[in-house]
Amino acid sequence: MKVKIDIECSPAEARAFFGLPNIEPLNDKLVEEMGRRMEANMDALEPEALMRNWMSMGGEMQKQMFALFTQAASTKRSED
């Protein structure tokens, strides 16, 4: 036996029916704050600034990896 029930209601009506809180005001504030922060950091999204940040991290990571490999190689030689 199959029973099919179609209910038409808005999301707000469904939340109220199930006793869930209305989080629309919180969501609106969150979206507003995210927009404000994004506008404040727009200069960091310029291509030149992005490349400067990425390259500085890349060079540092390369140095760390080289030091790690050097340390691993010297540890391996001392074990032999």
Major sheet summary line: none
Say how many strands there are. 0
Counting H and I runs of at least 4 residues, what is the number of helices?
A: 3
Series of H and E elements? HHH
Structural class of the helices, strands and pairings?
mainly alpha
Shape annotation? elongated
Topology (SSEs and partners):
Blueprint: H1 11-18, H2 24-40, H3 47-79
Notable features of this structure?
80 residues; elongated; 3 helices; mainly alpha
Description:
With 80 residues, the protein is mostly helical. The protein has one domain. The protein is built from 3 helices and no strands. The chain is elongated, with a radius of gyration of 28 Å. The mean pLDDT is 82.
Give a concise summary.
This protein has 80 residues and is mostly helical. It has 3 helices and no strands.
